[in-house]
Amino acid sequence: MMDKELEKLSRLTPPAVDPQARARALAAAMQAFDSAENNAAAAQGNAKGWRPSSIINWIWSPAVNKKFLAGSALATLLVIPAAGYLTFELARNQPIVDQEKIAGTVSKNEVPKPSEPRLSEAPAEENRPAQSSAADSAQILQDKEPQAAKSAAELRAEFDAGEIAALKSKSEDSVAALGMAKRAAPAAPGVVAQGQLLAEPMAVAPSPVPPADGRMQIQLDPSRERFANAAANPIKSVATDPVSTFSADVDSASYSFVRRSLTGGAMPDPQSVRVEEMINYFPYDWPGPEKADQPFKATVTVMPTPWNHDTELMHVAIKGYDIAPATAPHANLVFLIDVSGSMDEPDKLPLLKSAFRLLVNRLKADDTVSIVTYAGNAGTVLEPTRVAEKSKILSAIDRLEAGGSTGGAEGIEAAYDLAKKAFVKDGVNRVMLATDGDFNVGPSSDEDLKRIIEEKRKDGIFLTVLGFGRGNLNDSLMQTLAQNGNGSAAYIDTLGEAQKTLVEEAGSTLFPIAKDVKFQVEFNPERIAEYRLIGYETRALKREDFNNDRVDAGDIGSGHSVTAIYEITPKGSPAVMNDDLRYGVPSKAPAEASGSAHQGEFAFVKMRYKRPGEEKSALITTPVGDGNAVATIDAAPEDVRFSVAVAAFGQKLSRTSALDAYSYQAIADLAAASRGADPFGYRSDFLGLIRLADGLSQR
Description:
The protein is α+β, with helices and mostly antiparallel strands. It is 36% helix and 18% strand. It has helices at residues 2-11, 19-39, 55-65, 70-93, 99-105, 134-144, 146-155, 161-178, 194-198, 253-263, 275-279, 349-362, 390-398, 408-421, 446-456, 475-484, 495-504, 506-510, 590-593, 638-653, 664-673, 682-697, and strands at residues 236-237, 243-247, 296-305, 308-320, 331-338, 368-374, 378-386, 428-435, 462-468, 487-492, 512-523, 528-534, 554-557, 561-570, 601-610, 618-625. A hairpin with a 7-residue loop joins strand 15 (601-610) and strand 16 (618-625).
C-alpha cells in the first residue's frame, strides 16, 4: 500500500514557488546572520576579528573564493609533465634481466623445481645505503626472509661470475638512485661461496624455464652405481672355435647385489648379474683332493638341459684342498678402510666396523692386524698389532669416522707399504680393502689403479675387496682391483653376509692355495656341434693365454669350490644354430675314426695354476666321456641340480634369450627338489628370491 502511495506522490507536480514567501525567508536569514556577526568573539590573537595571514594567502584566497580556477590548472600543467619525465627516466635506467642469459648460467647439475618458491624481494629500508656490505645483506636475508632464503638455497643455482658482473654494472646506477637492497643469488654447494655472491648486489629474475637447446642437464636418477659386465657369451661352433679359455672366479658379490635389489622390491639391473658369481656363492659338497700336493679335483657331469630338450649341460665342478684351521699359516692383515664422506651411511662405515670386529674375533692370537684409513689423505690408524692385544685393535676400529673426499690410490700405496713392513714369510700377507669404490681424488680411473695393483702384487701380497653401501657403489673398480691384485671381491649388504664371508668362509677368504688359476676346455667335433659357456664373460682369456704364465688369472682359497657350466649341442641335434661350412673339412666317417683313442670323449678339460710364491704353473687334465653322462637330470647329484637351478635363475635375471620360455616357477621347482642339506639357510633364502622375482616380473 505504501509503495503505491509513494508512486502516486512521485508523479505529482510540485507547487510553484511563491515569490513573496521566498523574499520573506531570505530577509529573515540575512537578519539572523548579521546578528551572529555582531555578537561573535574576536578571532584568536587578533582583536580586529580576522585571522592573520601572509600576503600571498591574502591575495590567493579571494581569487579562489571568486572561483578563479586558473591557479589549479596551472599547477596541473606543471606537475604532470615533471612526473612523466621522472617516470620515463626511472624506466629507462631500470636493469632488464635477460631470461635466456640467466637460463644459460644455471647449473648443469641441478634445475630449480617449478613447485619451489622463488626468492621474495627484501623490503626497502628508508635510510639504507644502496651499496650495503656483504654482512648487512646477509643480515637482511636472515631477519626478513628466513623462509625464502631456505627455499632459495635448495635451488642450487650456479651463476657464472662474468654474468654476475655484467648484471651488476647494468643495475648499479638504478640501485643508487632508488636506495634499495637488491636480492642475492643462493650459492651452489662446492661451486661459489655464499659470501662472494652476497657481497655483490644483483637483480634476480623468476625461475627460468629450462631451455630446449641442451644447455641444462637434469639428473633424474641419483644412482651412480657402475657394474663390470659384458654381453652374454654367444653360441660357438666347434668346427671353427673348438677351444674355450677363461679365468677362475670365486667372487660372490653379484649374488648379494641381486638379493639387495629383490628384497628392496625391484628387479636387479641385468648388468649387475654375473651368473658364475651367483653359482659360486653357495657352498657345495664336491669331492675334494685328499692331499695338498694336488690342490684341486675336478668332477664332471653331463646331463639333459632343463630349459632345452635338444641340448645338454656339461657341469664342471672344482674343489680346492681344505687347510685345517690348526695348520693354517700366520696372517698379516692390513685393513684399508675408506672413511670418506660417501661412507657416512648406516650400511657403509657402521656396518664395515661391525664386520671387521667379527673378523678380528676369528683370528689367532699370533696374527697381526694393521689399519690404514683414507679420505682426502691416507693415514695409519694402527701399526701392526698382534691379535693378542684385541682390545687395542677393536678400539681403533670403533674410533673410525667418515668425512672428506676419496683418495683411494694414496691409501692403497700406504696399505701395501705397511703390509710389506710386517711381511710374514711362508704366511698370509693380505690387504683387505673396504670401500664403496667411489674414488675421486688422485688416480681414480680403473686403468690407473690397475697399474698400481699390478705393481704391488709382485711383493707376494694378496688383496680382498669388500664393497659396502648403495647409490654410488663402483663394482667395476672393485672387480678391476680384485682381478689384478691376486684377490677376490665380495659385497657386504648385511651383518649376516659379513658373518658368512669373514667368519664361516674365513679359510677360503684369507688363505690362498693357488693363484693364476685358468681353465681351458677343448670340445670333440665328432660328438659336439656347438657350445655356450654360461657366465664368466668378464673372465674370458685368449687361447694362447692359457700357457702364458705372465698372464694373470683368478685365485682360489682353502676349500673354495668353483663351478663352470656349458650348454652343449650334440652332433645331429635340431638345436644346431650354425650351418656347416661350404669350404670346411668334411667330417670323418665313424669307420675312419673307430681307431681314435679319443673317440668316446665329449671334451678335454685342462687347468693351470701356480702355488703361492711360485711363478711356474702346473697342469691338471680331465677327459670327459660317456662315463660322465646321466640319462635324466633327476639322476644327477643334488648339488649339481641345485647349481643348475641357480644358473637358470641368473640367466633369466640377465634376460638371456635361451631362458625366455623357462618360468620362474620351473626354476623354483628344480631348486626345491634339490635343496638338500642347508645348515645356514642359504638355499631356503634362494627359494624366497625366486618367488620375489616371479612376483616383481608380473608387474
